[in-house]
């Protein structure tokens, strides 16, 4: 990156790559691998990993049969195969926006169309509104896709909201695709470790997308899974799993070992992220003109900045700004929206750096906003109200 | 499997899982991994692995830019992403049949249609016939997809045939997708290590699908790549690569190490497979009524057996037959064909077992055919002609 070549230090708040150490169990397990031939694993996943996943869900009070779990190459493949299994050309998926932009690629790969459920920063991006959701359902609607806890918004559904969305899926005979990869990262005890899989009356509707990436800070393992009790969907997914033969053998061994990690690991990472969130939020609130609600989960915050265009602001931060040699990167908001023109002055901040770096990054951001307003937007100084 | 539970020994000639040891370089490399966080790798692949792939191609006299190589989760993902990038609903791909059945899933996932180029056992499944290929081209044709050396047939194209197919792609402005994952397994020196990538006049047409799976006996690594010099296609593929974030980090490290393996490894495995092929062919030729040509590459042989239905015969071998407690599995032929009714009495035999097991397996097959003809097909004994 040009800015780094110039010697600038960039604080990367733009990607969801946690800095937390991966539990050593992963590395220990893969180092013990001693089969002479690195053979294909079973197409639905190794029995050991499927059992480990089932054991983990059992601790969340969710009973699963082995066939309810299909191991995938990350949550990404879980999403792609789900879309390919569920969608036909021109069928529709309702997704609250802003949403994880790669959903677009997966839905479009299957020929599907996204119907965006609008939210806004002033309501903290909350989307669980029956009337608004139902107004988007057409005869072509095949699924509702939600991320809970939310990326990029950090929104977490409460029990009533989860139940209401489950009811909508059931009443309208839709698939409910729940991307729950941030399940462990809820910063209010009232949420517990949320999962739609506890609602047994939506067995035919529910598809859970899951992954070890965030849970165990093991993004590079590329191990995820689809959980569904819908037998017809299981068969469709299995066909795709067989066509790509298997998920990487050694990573499945590592992932199975991760599921034996002491639950204290989750508590520690959650506490660490909560501190980071608090830092980011308190600093953001001190910047005049920022609109932000405290996110309740995941490790992102979406905020509206007092700038004309967050993409242009980002480029300016990299090319024309430094605060004592430092600058900062976030993810501009527009790509998280389906609706053209939305999110222009919003950003997603991933709080995946350690405390002192985050503090410095927020100071740099505040200085950047002030200077950008003055130099680029030509905002004139005025007396404080 | 029921037959195994009954204590039968099954010789598995049904899947292309080699028994050759994976070079230790793979395991040594992954054991050395010592980053504390298992992070996402770069979406197009790690620079180290891309460089290793380029070095390998350079030894084949093929110069590649880094952007010409996109690392994928096995050859499978290379094929899926290529289909998703190239095909629109109802566009057509010409594929010689019999072909690797998973091609169907990948083409259909992208909404495409397969136009099968027919071949037959009496011609050794050869398909390089300009007239037959061109007769299948329509205004909807988008690509020709070949496997060279061939799975399931073992057919290898000679230089003139490769050139002729390249010319067709060029003249008709089609993509030429070459699945070359068996490139090292050619049993006649005249073929060398074949690759279409040496034809520089088809840069805009050519898409090579490649993998470490067979080359290094590392199927479980799930590391492959797409090689193309077509910039527009590179951009489309990269978009998909970014959407699924990355290929497993540790497997890419292992795969990069594989490319430093002494080329003697290829010569040894090739010699071993050649011996196995010779064994299988000489035994098959001794079975009356079998139609088989000597395959020149890969590690499969496709043959027509003197039975009414190879799928029914397979089930009978598992359920109702044993030769001193042994039986054998192959892949029934019909799933390798697009055209209904074809391949019914054909089988694909993967010669991936060691010499003595192969010999025994072929004896069991011969005994099975004789008994099946007598007991099930009620063929009456007749004096030898």
Describe this structure in words.
- The structure is a homodimer of 385-residue chains.
- Chain A has 2 domains: 2-20 and 264-375, Aspartate Aminotransferase, domain 1; 24-258, 3-Layer(aba) Sandwich (Aspartate Aminotransferase, domain 2), CATH 3.40.640.
- The mean pLDDT of chain A is 95.
- Helices cover 36% and strands 15% of the residues of chain A.
- In chain A, the strands form 3 sheets. In chain A, strands 2-8-7-6-5-3-4 form a 7-stranded mixed sheet, with helices on both faces.
- Chain A starts with a helix and ends in a 10-residue tail after the last helix.
- Chain A has 12 helices and 12 strands.
- Chain A is an alpha/beta fold and 385 residues long.
- The longest helix of chain A is centred in the C-terminal third of the chain and has 22 residues, at 264-285.
- The first copy, chain A, is globular, with a radius of gyration of 22 Å.
- At the A-B interface, helix 2, helix 4, helix 5, helix 8 and helix 9 of A face helix 2, helix 4, helix 5, helix 8 and helix 9 of B.
């Amino acid at each position: 990156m040009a800015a780094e070549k110039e010697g600038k230090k960039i604080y990367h708040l733009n990607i969801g790559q946690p800095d937390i150490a991966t539990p050593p169990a992963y590395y220990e397990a893969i180092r013990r691998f001693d089969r002479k031939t690195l053979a294909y694993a079973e197409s639905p996943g190794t029995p050991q990993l499927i059992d480990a996943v089932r054991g983990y869900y059992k601790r969340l009070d969710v009973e699963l049969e082995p066939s309810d779990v299909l191991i995938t190459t990350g949550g990404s493949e879980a999403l792609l195969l789900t879309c390919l299994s569920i969608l036909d050309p021109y069928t529709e998926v309702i997704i609250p926006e802003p949403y994880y932009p790669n959903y677009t690629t997966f839905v479009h790969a299957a020929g599907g169309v996204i119907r965006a459920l609008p939210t806004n920063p002033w309501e903290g991006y909350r989307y669980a509104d029956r009337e608004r959701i139902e107004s988007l359902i057409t005869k072509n609607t095949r699924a509702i896709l939600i991320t809970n806890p939310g990326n990029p918004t950090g929104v977490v559904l409460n029990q009533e909201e989860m139940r209401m969305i489950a009811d909508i899926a059931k009443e309208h005979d839709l698939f409910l695709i729940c991307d729950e990869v941030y399940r462990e990262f809820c910063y209010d005890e009232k949420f517990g470790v949320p999962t739609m899989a506890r609602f047994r009356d939506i067995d035919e509707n529910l598809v859970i997308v899951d992954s070890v990436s965030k849970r165990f800070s093991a993004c590079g393992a590329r191990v995820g899974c689809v959980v569904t009790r819908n037998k017809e969907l299981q068969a469709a997914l299995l066909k795709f799993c067989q066509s790509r033969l298997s998920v990487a053998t050694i990573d499945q061994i590592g992932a199975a070992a991760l599921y034996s990690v002491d639950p204290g690991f989750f508590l520690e990472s959650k506490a660490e992220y909560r501190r980071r969130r608090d830092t980011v939020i308190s600093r953001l609130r001190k910047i005049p003109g920022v609109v932000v609600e405290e996110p309740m989960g995941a490790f992102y915050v979406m905020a509206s900045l007092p700038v004309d265009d967050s993409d242009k602001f980002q480029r300016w931060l990299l090319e024309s700004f430094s605060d004592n040699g430092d600058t900062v990167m976030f993810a501009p908001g527009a790509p998280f929206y389906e609706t053209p023109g939305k999110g222009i002055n919003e950003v997603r901040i991933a709080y995946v750096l350690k405390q002192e770096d985050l503090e410095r990054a927020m100071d740099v951001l505040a200085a950047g906003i002030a200077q950008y307003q003055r130099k680029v937007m030509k905002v004139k100084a005025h007396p404080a109200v």
